[in-house]
Amino acid sequence: MNDKLDPLFKPKAVALIGASAKELSIGNVIIKNLLHYNFRGPVYPINPKVDEIRGLKAYPSILDVPGEVDLAHIVIPPPFVPAEVENCGKKGVKALIVNTAGFKEMGAEGKALEDDFLARARKYGIRVVGPNCQGIINSDPAVNAYCNFTFTYPKPGHISVVAQSGGVGAVIMQAFYDMGIGQRMYASNGNGSDVSITEILSYYGQDEETRAIVLYAESLENPHEFIEVAKRVTSRKPILAITAGRTDKGAEASRSHIGGMAGSISMDLIYKKSGILTFGSQEDLCHAAVALSSQPIPKGNRVGIITNTGGPSVIAIDELVSCGMEIPPLSENAAGALRETMLESASIHNPLDVVATAGPPQFKSAFEVMLKEPQFDSIYLNFVTPPFVDCENVAREIVAAAKAQNKPVVCNYMTDKEKWVGTSSILKEGEIPCFDFAETAARALHSLVRYNGIRTAPEGSVKIFDDVDKERVRAILDHAQSKNREVLTAAEVYGILEAYQIPVAPWKVVKGVEEVASAATAIGFPVVIKADSEEIIHKSDVGGVVINIQDTQEAVRVAENMKRMLGGGIRFFIQKFLSKGQELIVGAKAEEGVGHVIMFGLGGIFVEILKDVAFALTPVSDEEAMEMIRSVKAAPLIDGYRGAKGINKEKAVEIIQRISMLVGDFPAIRELDLNPLFASGDEIMAVDARIIL
Amino acid sequence: MNDKLDPLFKPKAVALIGASAKELSIGNVIIKNLLHYNFRGPVYPINPKVDEIRGLKAYPSILDVPGEVDLAHIVIPPPFVPAEVENCGKKGVKALIVNTAGFKEMGAEGKALEDDFLARARKYGIRVVGPNCQGIINSDPAVNAYCNFTFTYPKPGHISVVAQSGGVGAVIMQAFYDMGIGQRMYASNGNGSDVSITEILSYYGQDEETRAIVLYAESLENPHEFIEVAKRVTSRKPILAITAGRTDKGAEASRSHIGGMAGSISMDLIYKKSGILTFGSQEDLCHAAVALSSQPIPKGNRVGIITNTGGPSVIAIDELVSCGMEIPPLSENAAGALRETMLESASIHNPLDVVATAGPPQFKSAFEVMLKEPQFDSIYLNFVTPPFVDCENVAREIVAAAKAQNKPVVCNYMTDKEKWVGTSSILKEGEIPCFDFAETAARALHSLVRYNGIRTAPEGSVKIFDDVDKERVRAILDHAQSKNREVLTAAEVYGILEAYQIPVAPWKVVKGVEEVASAATAIGFPVVIKADSEEIIHKSDVGGVVINIQDTQEAVRVAENMKRMLGGGIRFFIQKFLSKGQELIVGAKAEEGVGHVIMFGLGGIFVEILKDVAFALTPVSDEEAMEMIRSVKAAPLIDGYRGAKGINKEKAVEIIQRISMLVGDFPAIRELDLNPLFASGDEIMAVDARIIL
Predict the structure, then answer these.
(1) Residue A352 in 3-state DSSP?
(2) pLDDT per residue as tens digits for the range B198-239
């Protein structure tokens, strides 16, 4: 797979079909960018009306180009694109960037043109980026490909960016540029008609020089393939993403802008399942990428703090602790060593305040001692540049000490960078990631810890239960579908649950009133009786549900009543009435193209008022199921509270996994709710359930 | 009050006691800063050993200076400071900045020196900033005072900064500088021995050119005075603050660094009561200050969005909606008007996507139409600068349209500012606040809405209840204090609650077993009986509490048992046993120097597991009490849930206010808990309570 996108990212010669002599036109800007960025191969402007563009000989057609061309831009209007793709095929072009807009995103006519040129490209085995896109950049000095009409020229570096939205991609590229951080590769694929974000991720994943990948996507064509590829990549290097469309309004804007499946909850879950680090802000993401592309990954969340100023250290600690980081005390040994080397007014603790007058020897010792402390996994540094300190040599000591140990260092660097050029460049060349604020440095450090969490998280396994009765489920679903029913009857729902060994309160379905008493007696009172029929959907609205029935006499009376009211066609669904125990909810909901989202929560107010629920995508592994249970805010109730016994978490995990398998085996199930389940003693049993096709 | 700090912020002549010819020493840097910043008055270096510093004549003593001196820096070692303060008094100096460190913060000896020089300053009516501080800056071109050893030179502007920590102050000053944002005044007062943060806030409040104030404080000397002054200031202009020490570890670092009262929860509550906008990050705070110092305050939270790029608009909407902003649709009229003026590919909705090719006429129309829409209180703009657009004239149209309407505009400005200098400076001079990221622009806009909320919040009133029996409470407390007791007996606690008309479940205290039956009967069964004595503290541990007693027989048996086990000295506290209703908790806790923090929450898991509680500082107004009740996450339970009647919120507000008054009247009460209260029907009654002195 590695070299499949080489003609795109490492072109040897680039042609521009639709090159223009007109300044500021796309057909001119791309030529300018290629030249300005010092592209290593030849650039061929294609334009039948001019001889020369920006000093380069122009050719009437791609077919007239004397040398080989592996990558061509197409910037001509849509109707002319298919013919030019045909020409590219004849020429032996291997990859195309179709910058032109006005295809699928503009309706049926555009889509037909897109389909047309894609078919021709496929015929010749040409890979296509776009249409309606920016293109790619590769800063590798052996390539220097700026096949894009943006206007920021990244220096070589180790962060690669792939963005569906060129607008967001450009903002991120500019942000790294403004921070003085180099970038490796960049791609924005617009409509994504051929080369997908997933392929680009895979390509970046195998690029040795790419140490961190930034991703912005509003939709994914094939989420399953994406998850598989992204998982492989994140095991080697971090992928960082913004979750777009996390609010309903945002998702709506995303739909109207890209026309695809909207972000919403499932993008977040896809990212989570892939081991992708998600961020609420582009700036936090960029900062994290800087840290992740330059620092070793810490083994844990314990931070040693070195500071030469007070207030920013308070702010840093607030942020670190809020992120869940730990700040263990200095060891006695370390404190002893530091007492020898620090200035008198220094504060020998963690945080270690070396004070503003500390010079190179103090910083050298501070870093050497702190980095060696086994109880620190990383070092956070507040560094203000006092005019009366030899800051350049301080910076050199920091860099040298950091290099000698395999622990990450991040720095809140408080200075006027225009003035402290020497110090700044020593830190930069020493790959100490520097941030302007204590909070941002703290959050960048936390991203390293998050990535360590992802890399070391136990794999988890998706259990395949072999005790399930698929045929029974299939028969029930086939029957319901044959009647065009979307809502299953109680007997059908409980039949399906039984077939997948999902524990439910004991139940029976009987046809006649005369069987009700014996069925209820067999189950044991109290019971619930529900009128069950394919016609009655909102049962309780029509008197079709009576709970807490105490004896046979009452049971018979209830059944007779129901029959009188609802007609002879009904059956009686009789179930043990449970009312004690901790209410739980497990649900599943189909998400277009993704599979199902599984939900877990405590019942009642926890779901309805506090929205305290956890989600995961199918197939849910045991680890994911356990994580769902642990991550609800009310988790202490699950563990047991005020002396009450907790619920059986292994049983809950099994139920979640069985539901996950059920909806995976039968994607026709659009919605399934076990609401509530009652957990009592060691048992968990569903006492109400609903399935919608 | 206005001119009291004028000698400090608008000095006419500045002397520097301890001036030094040594480059990079503080005594040299301050001279350099004053000269570099073009201070309007004379600068007098004071140093008996040299004749000249940086081209200025040096004087052996302040007493030798020929002209008047209103402000003097002191940078000499602590032991020499008192004598020089004396000299300053003789010279008629009005204000001092004591930069020297090594006073109170270093222990008893330093404190004695600090007390000494302060007494001398007071004798002469000299105001002192510091010691252990940076000093002040005033960018007013008529003053140009840079009385500080920092190294950032702010341009004139409308934001003033006061920071206890010079480190944090310098970071904020640098951040504004890096954004190209001017500043008005700056002060960092270190130990704050004389001139307080409160005084400086008040001074900034009355400075016409200061439109927004940035505050960083880790502790406050007199919180009550601070609240009073800050409330007055925030009614006219916004104060923005970072809450330092919001985590325990952060508070600990703050204590060790400033030696004062730590941040913790109370700083946040002090800020809230003062109407101060608080921020979790310095950067967000700086961005908000830029918006607040340049834009009109919107009337509400409804935003019109104009964008010329897709993805960033999705991100902006996510952030705006997450902040609680609304994005109403365009009116039909507006949509009609825009259809006339926009490019064909524009998307005529809110967000209005003018598309990347939009030029000055499209932006002009977009702004004119959107700003006139009555359902938009503000405009959010995404502006990327395409090379093929006349961006300078776009910027001019934006500025002109914004100036013509009294609604705020904020801009996510996506560009390379080094290249788009013209466009950038038109936006800057037009006071359109520009931010690099969609999220940061959205949050800055939200800060304007937050400030509107503060300014328009109803005042609220602190009710003084005249039906309380203060004498009875005083007698109870005097008695307990005379016995050196910290924990009050049940009879004392309920006596105090009764005296303040705080509703409790009916109760009686009786001495003998023979009175128990009749007391319980009078209250009505079921009852609780508690053994009550000054010696028994943990009653339930020793069998001193029995609940849910059903009849006289059981009551007598319980009482006899208690007497046998706990001795003849006990009394019996008998109370109606309630077990139904919604559990609530109201608590009060004394906070050093602040008064009391009042807590409200729902009982049980809501407090113990979900930590779902609200706090306010005494005295709690009716509005604050109602806000506490509304702000807990479980508030829907209070309003009524699943058909259940809600609790009587007016009663809850009254209880909170009565508790607030009680602890305000009797600060000796360190802790008070009503836990739980039961709300049932229209009633709320405490069924257990505890008071600690």
Answers:
(1) strand
(2) 999 999 999 999 999 999 998 888 899 999 999 999 999 999
Would you call the peptide bond into B154 cis, given omega within 30 degrees of 0 as the criterion? no
Rounded to an integer, what is the distance from CA A26 to the centroid of its chain? 33
Quick one: pLDDT at residue A261? 40
Q: Which phi and psi (to 5°) does residue B361 adopt?
A: -60, -40
The pLDDT tens digits of the residues spanning A455-514 come to 999 889 999 999 999 999 999 999 999 999 999 988 899 999 999 999 999 999 998 888
Q: What is the CATH number of domain A506-576?
A: 3.30.1490.20
3-state secondary structure of A614: strand
Quick one: A296 exposed, middle or buried, by C-beta within 10 A (0-12, 13-18, 19+)?
Answer: middle
User: Is B214 touching A (CB cutoff 8 A)?
Assistant: no
Tens digits of per-residue pLDDT, A18-35?
999 998 889 999 999 999
DSSP-assigned states of every residue in B285-310? HHHHHHHHTTSPPPSSSBEEEEESSS
Mention every residue, 6+ apart, whose C-beta is less than 8 A from residue A91.
A62, A63, A65, A69
Could you tell me the pLDDT band of residue A658, with boundaries at 50, 70 and 90?
very high
At B542 the three-state DSSP class reads helix
Reduced 3-state DSSP string for A621-687: CHHHHHHHHHHCCCHHHHHCCCCCCCCCHHHHHHHHHHHHHHHHHCCCCCEEEEEEEEEECCEEEEC
Look-up of token digits 């992708």: A276
* pLDDT for residue A256: 56
Burial of A38 (0-12, 13-18, 19+ CB in 10 A): exposed
Entry pTM: 0.91
Tokens of B80: 């020499």
3-state helix, strand, coil in chain B (%, to 5): 40, 20, 40
The confidence score (pLDDT) of residue A419 equals: 87
- Those of residues 622-661 in B touching chain A at CB distance below 8 A are 633-634, 636-637, 641-642
Report phi then psi at B687, rounded to 5: -115, -10
Lowest mean pLDDT among A215-219, A381-385, A565-569, B58-62: A565-569
According to DSSP, the residues that pair with B412 across neighbouring strands are B382, B435
Q: What is the mean pLDDT of residues B633-658?
A: 88
Listing DSSP states for A138-201 in one string gives E--TTT-EEESS----PPB-SEEEEESSHHHHHHHHHHHHHHT--B-EEEE-TT-SSS-HHHHH
CATH 3.40.50.720 fits A1-145, yes or no: yes
Q: Is A88 left (phi over 0), alpha (psi -120 to 50) or beta?
A: alpha
Residue B499 CB contacts under 8 Å (≥ 6 apart), including other chains: B468, B469, B470, B472, B473, B476
H-helix segments, B182-310: 197-206, 223-234, 248-258, 264-274, 282-292
Tokens of B420: 């788009």
Could you say which residues from 483 to 502 on chain B have a Cβ atom under 8 Å away from some Cβ of chain A?
none
Q: Smallest CA–CA separation between B670 and chain A, in Å?
A: 27
What is the CA A363 to chain-centroid distance, rounded?
39
CATH class of the structural domain A303-456: alpha beta
Contacts of B254 in chain A (CB under 8 A): 314
Beta-carbon separation of A281 and B437 below 8 A: yes
Spans of all domains in chain B: 1-133, 152-293, 303-456, 506-576, 582-692
Q: What is the pLDDT of residues B489-498, one digit of tens each?
A: 888 999 999 9
The verdict on a CB contact (< 8 Å) between A439 and B415 is no
Q: Would you tell me which CATH number, out of the four given (3.40.50.720, 3.40.50.2300, 1.10.287.130, 3.30.70.100), belongs to the domain B1-133?
A: 3.40.50.720
**Average pLDDT of the segment spanning A33-54:** 96
As a whole number of angstroms, the distance between CA B2 and CA B477 comes to: 44
Q: Report yes or no: A29 at the B interface, CB cutoff 8 Å.
A: yes
Higher confidence at residue B311 or residue A350?
A: A350
Which two three-digit tokens encode residue B122? 């007071």
